[in-house]
Automatic annotation (TrEMBL):
It is found in: Cell membrane. Its main location: membrane. GO terms for biological process: proton transmembrane transport. This is Sodium/proton antiporter, CPA1 family. Keywords: Antiport, Cell membrane, Ion transport, Membrane, Transmembrane, Transmembrane helix, Transport. It comes from Microbulbifer marinus. GO terms for cellular component: plasma membrane. GO terms for molecular function: antiporter activity. Residues 22-390 form the Cation/H+ exchanger transmembrane domain.
Length: 406
């Protein structure tokens, strides 16, 4: 064990937790601080943090973080608001997501001569899902209208799971493992397995565990010191079981969280607190590792095509489909632009990046570089704009006499 690393990380976690409330009200907070800290103290900075996490280690850390965040965000969802405004996340997922992948593909064709068509499709799919952890500053901000918060939360909770079978299909085509004849059956198989198993495991396992916990709690069997563990183990259990059985752990975690939030409405604030704290800590560690062990390695390789694609991915590729798919659903122009802008890329794209890295495609280097650049740009841009734009939207709606958003 490297005690120097442990000392630095422990002191950083302590320091940030001590000022977290103040930091969350400023543009410099969360993933932006964590990533910059890792970069500054890593091998390409001061060299104090010696993090040599392998790609699979980073993938595991990102997956567990995302599973916890998805479960707790879903459990905290206001289902009454979500039911009333379900058309927003439904349009974002069924129309906006495919349009985002298509537009990302077209931009890739224009910018990357060294990538094959299926490799470009892989890249577009990797950067289509939004990040629940990076978007937390927005979806938990009471100044943001509830329908936007619930819509963005539901979108980020489901789009990574939806993208998994699409990514695996394009990977199979890019690597030559699938042919034109086998593609339709492979696509159907992947969708049914990833989504179907994910839903069954998430709902079934949560239902069993929630009722067992309720029964044990009513009998006074649960010690207070152990109340911090049930939700954490539920989230990780749903995720791991679904992955083990060949389904989407992300779909399992999100669907399980929704069910748990419905079954444990009275108890969930106390039970969720520890899980949210664990998720925040894992997110901190993930972004520190990303900054210290990944970002610095790619700086010298970045070129104009990569920067251009990253910028387009966060703006036109995301915002235009969102604006078009929300036509006629009720949000104002400012609200549609706000929803379109807050589609940060983060943990899901890191997980997808490690999956693609292990496939050894001819264009893996370019794909990985573009994903890292896009995530880094997202961390900076969305981190700096979350609070100011939320305040601006609230002020605009207040001046127009719209109902309170809290």
């Amino acid at each position: 064990m490297n005690y120097g690393n442990l000392t630095i990380l422990a002191l950083f976690v302590f320091a940030y937790s001590a000022v977290s409330g103040r930091a969350d009200r400023t543009p410099i907070n969360g993933a932006l601080v964590y990533t910059l800290f890792g970069l500054a103290l890593g091998a390409h900075g001061l060299g104090l943090l010696e993090l040599s996490v392998e790609s699979e280690g980073l993938r595991t850390l990102a997956e567990l973080t995302l599973a916890l965040v998805l479960f707790t965000d879903a459990a905290n969802a206001d289902l009454s608001v979500l039911r009333q405004t379900i058309k927003v996340p439904r349009r974002l997922l069924l129309v906006g997501l495919p349009l985002t992948i298509i537009l990302g593909f077209l931009c890739g064709v224009l910018l990357f001569d060294d990538l094959g068509l299926f490799e470009i499709a892989v890249l577009a799919t990797m950067l289509a899902p939004t990040d629940a952890a990076l978007g937390k500053a927005v979806v938990t901000n009471p100044r943001v209208p509830p329908f936007i918060r619930q819509g963005l939360s539901a979108e980020s909770g489901l789009n990574d799971g939806i993208c998994v079978p699409i990514l695996l299909l394009f990977l199979a085509l890019a690597s030559g493992a699938a042919t034109a004849e086998t593609t339709p059956m492979l696509a159907l198989k992947l969708v049914l397995e990833e989504l179907g198993i994910g839903l069954l495991v998430g709902l079934g396992l949560t239902l069993i565990m929630a009722y067992l916990l309720r029964g044990a709690s009513h009998r006074g069997w649960v010690e207070e010191s152990w109340l911090q563990l049930p939700v954490v183990t539920m989230a990780l259990g749903c995720f791991a079981a679904a992955q083990w059985l060949g389904g989407s752990g992300f779909i399992a975690a999100f669907s399980g969280g929704l069910l748990f939030g419905r079954l444990a409405q009275k108890e969930k604030p106390e039970l969720l607190m520890a899980a949210e704290g664990t998720g925040d800590t894992l997110a901190l560690l993930t972004w520190v590792v990303f900054g210290a062990g990944v970002v610095g390695n790619y700086f010298q390789l970045i070129n104009w095509q990569v920067i251009c694609y990253a910028a387009l991915s966060l703006t036109v590729v995301r915002m235009l489909p969102v604006y078009l798919c929300l036509a006629g659903t009720g949000p104002t122009r400012a609200e549609k632009l706000f929803i379109g802008w807050f589609g940060p890329r983060g943990l899901a794209s890191i997980v997808f990046g490690v999956i693609v890295l292990n496939e050894n495609l001819p264009g893996t280097a370019t794909i990985s570089l573009t994903v890292v650049c896009t995530i880094l740009l997202s961390v900076v841009a969305h981190g700096l704009t979350a609070n100011p734009l939320a305040a601006r939207l609230a002020s605009k709606e207040s001046s127009e006499g719209r109902p309170p958003t809290g």
